[in-house]
Amino acid sequence: MIEYRKEIDGLRAIAVIPVIFYHAGYQLFGGGFVGVDVFFVISGYLITTIILNDLESKKFSLLNFYERRARRILPALFLVVLCCVPAAWFMLLPDEMEEFSKSLIAVSTFTSNIHFWQDDGGYFAGPSELKPLIHTWSLAIEEQFYIILPIFLVLTWRLGRRFLLVSLLTSFVISLSLAHWGSQFRPSAAFYLLPTRAWELLIGSFVAFYLQRNEILFSNFASNALSTLGLAMILTSVFLFNSTTPFPGLAALAPTLGTALVILFANRRTLVFALLSHRAMVGIGLISYSLYLWHQPLLAFSRIFFIEGHNERLIPFLLAISVLLAWISWKYIEMPFRKESVISSRGIYIGATFISSALICFGIVGYQTEGKINVRMELGFKHQVQRLN
Asked: Of 70, 239, 240, 338, which is the most buried if we count CB atoms within 10 A?
């Protein structure tokens, strides 16, 4: 059983808050997108820890691993996407509906990152603010990593830790090099694709490898200094980076290595631990996944509905609604679906297959009809005519 670390949930809060404020348009959080990079390191650490512990105890099962990932990720994701469908149906113009339909297919097949990479706009382009599901690109990255890493570890486990670490380190160097080159010459591909993002998750994997066999034995002063440095690296990136920062090249080392320092050194005797383990921070961290899922659709559909631009006065209200919906999703969707007593393994697989298939079919119809499947109420029709003009 993996020991629960409440400061990790607090770190999730540090990750999700800047992302939300960035998407909300607060200029102070010009580098808020780095919160995703913090999530990547946390995910790499937690997933690798789970796999290593199961391999050590000789009870690892790929089927069980993927079932746990499905229970963790799919219920809340499907809820949000299903809620987006009627909103899109009533609000979007045909070309927007066509784009939304393609994104439904991508979300259901965990290829959102590839889909949005192929889109000409790019993550930092203005039109991305109007895409309700653009934030799912990061989930696709993680899922693709979750497919590759456990299979690699299972196949090479008997070759020893040294071989594993050398292989992963080689992959890390190649991935980081590609990311640095791509951030200069192929920025959209570098931002969205796994080969240029894998190194961030691998930082978390290296932390997991280290902590599995070693205990951090630093003085209080050193632990305080290093964990504070790590948090400062994350926050500095949030406030100093912006859309012109080459990313995810070498600049991304600041938030990712900062996250690693926090995971390694924020023990119970440090100020950073006291901050991250505060009830409010842990609470936000617990609902961070659902909060990440809900905020972008609410902001995007609001921007779409208010033709002349997003009503700034609505932002605090929308963020508050995001928190409320996130709490509801966490309590009544995320937590229950993690328990086999609530839904069986078979139920998870059947439900996931049915909902994914339905979304894919809807997406195919929307794409094939060029988005001309949306319902136009009188208000919606007038609204669309105004947008066309």
From this structure: 70
